[in-house]
Amino acid sequence: MSDKAAIRAEAARLQAFFSASGAVPVEADLLQSAETLLDLYGEDIRARAYTTHDPDRGELMLRPDFTVPVVQMHMANGAEPARYTYLGEVFRKQQADSRRASEYLQVGYEVFDRANPAAADAEVFALFSEVLSPLGLAPVTGDIGILLAAVDSLSTTERRKRALRRHIWRPRRFRVLLDRFTGRKPAPLGRAALLERAETGLEALIASGGPMIGLRGPDEIERRIRHLQEDAAAEPIGTAEAEVLDVILSLRETLNNAHEQLRDIAVDLPGMSHAVARMARRMDALDQAGVDVAGLPFEASYGRTNMEYYDGFVFGFLAEGQPRLPPVATGGRYDALCRMLGGGREIPAVGGVIRPELVHALHNDLAEGGS
Prior knowledge:
glycosyltransferase, 48% helix, 12 strands, alpha+beta, three-stranded antiparallel sheet, seven-stranded mixed sheet
């Protein structure tokens, strides 16, 4: 059997496991609407997705993942509750020196269930842990909801909070904004010069820029400058709050210990209390599902670079001793995505994906090591 056929057989085995766990197999089109993906992720998606153009459907992208089309399908006509599984290729651009494939198979499992989100989180994690258990992978968990709640708890303007929330998944940009909002670093020199000139009057400033080019008109430019003025006049985020946020972002502990620390932190940022309580309910559900909660690693920043539609519990399964290897499996909760694509409807949802070619390779490694 060729490697490609063997990987396809491994994928079929994984999907059969999820089907036996109650999931309905579903399909998704290879070509997805670029407009939808751009609305969700912004122009950043162009750096990762392959695009094409259809005379009738407009700009399209080769499927970068399954979650968006599965959510669209469910929100259009899915029953409640629902569990789905899928198998197929996804396509991601890679750097020239990357060893990672630009086309590979994914097998996934998604749960849409509003009855008990904590139990659904535990169900998905426990199933992935079970099916991957022969490989001896290292699990890791996180919680984007904790980070979002911490940002919402800051004593600063709503505009600044929205900016920080928007860049939770872009750690470098997030750090630049946080340092600026706390006063640890000054605003860009160009912005300072612009605001100084704006003090003489916005109409004169806009007129000095010459004829209008592009889609932005004078009103939009004026609004943007006023927003910059309001931000410059805002009080900086307090040192104590910034230090607490730094502690959260660097938190790496076992799940039990992390929860204790976050519970203490919530005393200083009480707006986090609901997220910490949700974390406790998930821990109880994981324990009831047979997961060793006491030994489960937790990283508060896990998932910030490659899971941008997740907004709650996140997890991954990694091959220890192989740092260049992508995660074998990843997943998490994406309630906000359902709201965005639901057309007025919403439902809590959680799921994950496995890369069968990595599972196949690791099975081969184990077989060779045992021979």
